[in-house]
Amino acid sequence: MASEAAAYFGIGGNAIYKGSSGLLTTVADDLGAFSGVGPYQAPDINDWGLVEFFAGYDAGGEGFFIGDGASITKVTDTNDGLSSFFFYFGLQDSAPAEASLSNEGVVYFKAAGVFTDRDGTLVQVQSPGAGSSGLSINNRGDVAFVDRYISGEEHVLRVARASGSVETLASTAGLFQAIGEAAINDSGGVTFNVCLDAGGRGIWTTRDLTNAVIKAGDPLFGSTVTAFGGAGGRFDRRGFNNRGQVAFSYVLADGRRGIAVATRTSACNNAVDDDGDGFIDYPADPGCAWAGAWKEDPPCSDGIDNDGDGLIDLADPECSSPSDQLEGVFFTGCGIGPELAVLLPALLRLRRRGARWS
Questions:
Q1: What is the 3-state secondary structure (H, E, C) of the chain?
Q2: Predicted model pTM
Q3: Over the chain, what is the mean pLDDT?
């Protein structure tokens, strides 16, 4: 969780600030080359204090940028050949601009399709004939969003940052009449809200497309749910964490409103061998870091090269244990780091040799 927050203020001029403990830093304002800073898209901040925002230029044109309070870097703008960032159902419109920023500084954004920047080159990950909403990015740089076609067909898509592969996770071909927003966590799990063919709304996860996390008509707190994800309640792309918990606002039949957290049964404490490796739950399954872990085969024990470096699971030095949730990031705590650990024996031998020669 970021220790800072980012916000847009439009009183007496447009500006974006970030701050913590009452101390504010200006990230961008409209006193220089920018105009229209902020109002078309809420800023996004990562754990390192980098803020992604949308702004227009005084001279014309617009784009997405990253700032830290000291400098600003362009992600892309209309000078890169993109005509506009306001699209709805694949057509240019006044819909809000959308982008999402990861801890590694990866940005996905919506134009005529969904794009990202790879080593200075814009890469399109969604076709221009489709609209999209709810861009949600995890700390690996994977992104999930809802893909909408003019024909009315909708899909929940997940794009892997390492390989660029696009995977369809759910669609309106079955139970769902329409799909709202999607949210992705660091294990690649995706949750999304829907309108049902049978009527009413619900929240689903791609881990279990048969049963809802919760839906209209379900019992809750001594009453029944009448609305969430809209029409008085809401599910947002920020409402899904790495423990698999889902936060949502609700309206009950007796008139009460509130915010609830749904915690599903842990895969590491359900007496089932979820990943089929012959080991059940914590502590028997090495993929379970604790009894509450929601996945028995996290990225460092799933048999997949998740970060595309040619090394799989524990053969990848970025995996500190089978239960490590990120194969593409070092989590070495207060240790000396894997590279230095490899070199340390040789350094000690050289030191001892130098001591004998002196």
A1: CCCCEEEEECCCCCEEEEEECCEEEEEEECCCCEECCCCCCCCEECCCCCEEEEEEECCCCEEEEEECCCCEEEEEEHHHCCCCCCEECCEECCCCCCEEECCCCCEEEEECEEEEEECCEEEECCCCCEEEEEEEECCCCCEEEEEEECCCCEEEEEECCCCCCEEEEEECCCCEEEEEEEEECCCCCEEEEEEECCCCEEEEECCECCCCCEECCCEECCEEEEECCECCEECCCCCECCCCCEEEEEEECCCCEEEEEECCCCCCCCCCCCCCCCCCCCCCCCCCCCCCCCCCCCHHHCCCCCCCCCCCHHHCCCCCCCCCCCCCCCCCCCCCCHHHHHHHHHHHHHHHHHHHHC
A2: 0.66
A3: 76
